[in-house]
Amino acid sequence: MLSRMADSLYWLSRYVERAENLARSLDTAQRMTGLPSSYAGSTNEWESVVITAACKDSFDEIYSDATRANVLEYIVGSKANPCSVLACIATARNNARSVRTALTSEMWEILNDAWNETRTVDPRNLPQKDLSRFLASVKEASLRFDGAAYRTMLRTDHFWFQRLGTFIERADSMARLLDVKYHLLLPDDERVGGSLDYFQWASLLRSVNALTSFHWVYRESVQPWLVADFLILRPEQPRSLISCYKELNEYLDQIAEAYGRQGPAQRRVRATLSQLSNAKIDDVFQSGLHEFLESFIAQNNELGQAISQQYLS
Asked: What pLDDT, on a 0 to 100 scale, did the predictor assign at position 207?
């Protein structure tokens, strides 16, 4: 397969996943700001969306304050933000057009429909009811696209590169979500394990559709170290960091077998997977969750660069 086609498939999936993750972050912020002021009055969930999206510097160049209106305009569809939800969907569609013959008709139709449904959205005029409907449509389109890829694509290098993009982006988003919640959101005068802490962690679990499954696994109340364990080290949770890296390791191995050689990407994914497999959540918290997640994000970026240099350039 041409590296240009592999690159388009890889980034197509990254942008679809990124659009979904941004929608989930906005949905979480909306839920938190709907709490009574005694819970949500001392923190800014809207600012956390910008930080999670890794675009705070560019946001601050345009806006003086992270209000609901400003964050929605920037994250949903500002022309100044190349990674807004609308921009991600448009870029994913453009990539899909360039590799149309590598996609199934179901995948193309889902992306094209999502673009048609969202391109007329005005990010400066999104009342709560319309915002909820918009975020739900973005999440649904991503889930349908993911399902169509899994059910209809041949298990060839087309499929493997498409899945690499999905799991690199998913791992990055999950690590950033956890880091923002643990390191930035809880005010200094709030008790860890208190009511605000509980609602924030529960909202994070809801944002990734994991609250019910969390209780299935732990059968306990929501606690920070249990949530971190669930979303970092539990392989049965499909959005956990270790689950993402098990998938990345599998697809990189299949690519290596098909192409007859391995390289830095395979070595990097195995090193990070080994680190996650041997980690214990008590040790992670003792050494610092923030530091652990910062290191993971850096390693994940390095893996993405290794994949690009090895296969996509």
From this structure: 85
Give the C-alpha separation, 234 to 232, whole Å: 6
- Which residue shows structure tokens 């005068």? 189
For residues 38-63, average pLDDT: 81
Core vs surface per residue 152-169: b (16+ CB within 10 A) or e = ebeeebbbbbbbbbbbbb
DSSP collapsed to 3 states, the chain: CCHHHHHHHHHHHHHHHHHHHHHHHHHHHHHHHCCCHHHHCCCCHHHHHHHHCCCHHHHHCCCCCCCHHHHHHHHHHCCCCCCCHHHHHHHHHHHHHHCHHHCCHHHHHHHHHHHHHHCCCCCCCCCHHHHHHHHHHHHHHHHHHHHHHHHHCCCCHHHHHHHHHHHHHHHHHHHHHHHHHHHHHCCCCCCCCCHHHHHHHHHHHHHCCCHHHHHHHHCCCCCHHHHHHHHHCCCCCCCCHHHHHHHHHHHHHHHHHHHCCCCHHHHHHHHHHHHHHHCCHHHHHHHCHHHHHHHHHHHHHHHHHHHHHHHHC
Cα 271 to Cα 299: distance, rounded to the nearest angstrom: 10
10-42 pLDDT, tens per residue? 999 999 999 999 999 998 888 777 665 544 444
| 28 within 8 A of 203, measured Cβ to Cβ | yes
Helix axes 264-278, 241-259, angle to 10 degrees: 150
Q: Give yes or no for residue 188 having a pLDDT over 60.
A: no
> pLDDT tens digits, residue range 199-234?
778 888 988 889 999 999 998 888 888 999 999 999
Largest CA distance in the chain: 60
Tokens representing 278?
């041997």
Give pLDDT, residue 127: 84
- Contact (CB, 8 A) for 214 and 246: no
Cβ atoms < 10 Å from Cβ of 43: 18
Are 50 and 59 in contact, with CB atoms under 8 Å apart? yes
